[in-house]
Amino acid sequence: MKILIVGGGGREHAIAWKLAKSPKVEKLYCAPGNAGIAEVAECVNIGVMEFDKLVAFAKEHEIDLTVVAPDDPLAAGAVDAFEAAGLRAFGPRANAAILEGSKAFSKDLMKKYGIPTAAYETFNDPEKALAYLETAKMPIVLKADGLALGKGVLICKDLEEAKAGVKTLMMDKQFGSAGDEIVIEEFMTGREVSVLSFVDGKTIKIMTSAQDHKRAKDGDQGLNTGGMGTFSPSPFYTPEVDAFCKEHIYQKTVDAMKAEGREFKGIIFFGLMLTADGPKVLEYNARFGDPETQVVLPRMKNDLVDLFEACIDGTLDQIELEFEDNAAVCVVLASAGYPEHYEKGFEIRGLENFRDKEGYYVFHAGSKFDDQGRVVTNGGRVLGVTATGSNLKEARANAYKATEWIDFDNKYMRHDIGHAIDEA
Question: Any idea where the ATP-grasp domain is (predicted)?
Answer without folding.
Answer: 107-316
